[in-house]
Write a structure and sequence with these properties.
By secondary structure, this protein is mostly helical. It is about 75% helix and about 0% strand. The protein has one domain. The chain contains four helices and no strands. The chain is elongated.
């Protein structure tokens, strides 16, 4: 009985990763197509360096750009989804292992989650 539940948890985690990566890839693809439609005719100027605007370097800027169907915002949102996929898997693992009452894997998953969250919050 416990093996069936563990197998179900593994299947659900695998499915979550598959869906997350597929959705992220489709969003990036849609953003790429939108980018070609919005600025496909313009020629890049490689003679001058222009840094990226905050609209594509901050989470709020990316989400706002994606909501306004800005191509770079949509591509950035797809990349954010790709980054969020394994984080959601770890959260799902913590909850799933806790429900299975597997203390060792719950603790390991929680430690991984803490390290992941710390890496996003801590800035140098």
């Amino acid at each position: 009985m416990a093996q069936d539940r563990e197998h179900g948890l593994e299947q659900a985690m695998g499915r979550m990763l598959q869906i997350g990566v597929t959705v992220a890839a489709l969003v990036v693809l849609a953003g790429g197509i939108l980018y070609l439609l919005q600025s496909g005719g313009s020629k890049p100027d490689y003679g001058h360096f222009v840094s990226a605007s905050p609209a594509v370097t901050t989470v709020s800027g990316i989400v706002s750009g994606a909501m306004h169907m800005d191509a770079r915002g949509v591509i950035g949102f797809g990349i954010l989804l790709l980054i969020a996929t394994p984080i959601c898997r770890v959260i799902f693992g913590v909850v799933g292992f806790a429900m299975l009452r597997d203390r060792l894997y719950t603790a390991i998953s929680a430690a991984v989650l803490i390290i992941l969250l710390y890496s996003f919050v801590a800035r140098r």
